[in-house]
Amino acid sequence: MGLPKEHREATCKMDAATDSRLRDRLPTIAEKIIENCTDSGCFTHVDFEPIPSKQSVIEIIEKLREVIFPGYFNREKLDPVNLKYYMGQTVSVLFDLISEQVTLSIRHDCFRYDKPCNECRDRGHEVALALLEEIPGIRKILATDIQAAYDGDPAARSTDEIIFSYPGIFAITIYRVAHKLHELGVPLLPRIMTEHAHNLTGIDIHPGARIGERFCIDHGTGIVIGETTEIGRDVRIYQGVTLGALSLPKDAGEMLRGKKRHPTIEDEVIIYSGATILGGDTVIGARSVIGGNVWITHSVPPDTKVIMEPQRQKFK
């Protein structure tokens, strides 16, 4: 049998009183948090100046994937009859979403860094149109990336499988879009996009990197491709590869911003898992093969194979 009714009621009243005493402390805690928002040593954005919305950027990414790969990521079935209607509607929605977020990104820079007026709203519309006009070209180069993944992976049963499930293709798709925005001079937005892909896949591609067609990322987790990296066509890289900068001094942000800090990878290079290639003057020559776990800070001539010395394994 349960507790008597009187006991249960007394217990409930005691619990309610305890909850009330605890919640009475919340206004004081909220006031302290509000006071802390004005602390110059903390990072907040409580102001009248605009800022982009990360959730809206994610919505743009999802809508763009529906347009780039029609029929794959749509909730409704697409066929030749409804394609024109669906595409027209989605492109219109994308135009509004992209325009707004580009406008907020540009305006944020104008306010925060006291830049001259850049006619933000008009610029937002122009960039949105320019990006949407690039969709056919982005789709064509992504088709080469998908085909390269299929050609080099015996485990792949179809290109559909690659489009649906390969994290490398997801990360490359977002990079290709973000790179166009980067080229159009849009602040903040491209990095938000590629960091979203990084968060989901573990693949970190800076939107400023320049990457040729038929680019293949196999597995992908832990890959880092820095801002000034240049990658030719038909390059394949595996998980854990870093294309990064050499050790930077404390004030490197201002001193090296905009300068070449990351390597150049020429055509038809293969880089195996765990390899680290550093430095803006480092060039990996065409058709070279970089073995797993090597560390490279100097250029490698074309048609070169770089491997670690075999290690002796002992059983005791």
Count of alpha/pi helices = 10
Alpha carbon gyration radius: 26 Å
Instruction: Using the alpha-carbon principal axes, give the shape.
Output: globular
Overall CATH architecture of the largest domain:
Orthogonal Bundle
Strand order in space, largest sheet? 1-4-7-10-13
The rounded distance between the terminal residues' Cα atoms is: 65 Å
| Secondary-structure content class | alpha/beta
CATH class of the largest domain: Mainly Alpha
Pattern of helices and strands: HHHHHHHHHEEEEEEEHEEEEEEE
In CATH terms, the superfamily of the largest domain is serine acetyltransferase, domain 1
Largest sheet: 5 strands, parallel
Low-confidence stretches: none
Strand content bin: 5-15%
Helix content: 40-55%
DSSP strand count? 14
- Structural domains: how many: 2
Mean pLDDT: 89
- What CATH calls the topology of the largest domain is serine acetyltransferase, domain 1
Q: What do these coordinates show?
A:
The protein has 316 residues and is α/β, with parallel strands linked by helices. It folds into 2 domains: 50-202, serine acetyltransferase, domain 1 (Orthogonal Bundle); 209-309, Hexapeptide repeat proteins (UDP N-Acetylglucosamine Acyltransferase, domain 1, 3 Solenoid). Helix content is 47%, strand content 10%. It has 10 helices and 14 strands. The protein has helices spanning 5-23, 26-36, 54-68, 83-112, 120-133, 135-151, 159-165, 167-183, 189-201, 252-256, and strands at 204-205, 210-211, 216-218, 224-225, 230-231, 236-238, 242-244, 264-265, 270-271, 276-278, 283-284, 289-290, 295-296, 305-306. Strands 1-4-7-10-13 form a 5-stranded parallel sheet. A 5-stranded parallel sheet has the order 3-6-9-12-14. It has a 4-stranded parallel sheet with strand order 2-5-8-11, with no helix packed on it. The termini are far apart.
